[in-house]
Amino acid sequence: MTPIDRLLAEHEISRLITRFALLNDAGDWAAVAATFTADGRFVRPAGGDAIVGRDDILASFTSRPPRKSCHLITNIVVDIANANEASARCSMLLYTAPAGDAAAASPALIGGFRDKLIHTPDGWRFAERAGFLDFKVDFK
Questions:
Q1: Alpha helices of 27-135 — where are they, by DSSP H?
Q2: Half-sphere exposure of 73 (CA within 13 A, CB side)
Q3: SS3 102
Q4: Fewest CB atoms within 10 Å of the CB: 9, 20, 108, 117?
Q5: What CATH number is attached to the domain comprising 44?
Q6: What is the spatial distance between Cα 12 and Cα 18, in angstroms, rounded to a whole number?
Q7: How many whole angstroms separate alpha carbon 71 and alpha carbon 62?
């Protein structure tokens, strides 16, 4: 990989990470699921078993009660292994509220994601996205 190819891959992956958050906040579950490989694995930041496969990831998002959310993503670090494989890590601050409510219903959640990514014919996709929580912050 040339240095320019590496920079382009890092940029595309950083954009995918940010896009995942924006699509999640918009409730565009089909587009969120499409950020994964067909056999991708997803672990929510709150924990639980891995959800495996794009179809099951989509089903898990569509089955959740409606909510309003704001994911703030920062500290994105991408490590390119080769032209087709990479890993990344980012930090996240998450606010949530019931749909239609402007007041956060729960404390802010601080954590992030550890990602394994694969370059596909459609661009970079998450092969594995494992969320984690570090803190719950109640500003009251």
A1: 29-33, 54-62
A2: 22
A3: coil
A4: 108
A5: 3.10.450.50
A6: 10
A7: 18
Total of domains in the chain: 1
93 Cβ partners below 8 Å, 6+ apart?
Answer: 71, 72, 74, 108, 109, 110
Residue that is written with structure tokens 């996205």 in the block: 129
- Where in the sequence is the domain holding 92, given as residue range(s)? 3-137
Name the residue with tokens 């970079």. Answer: 124
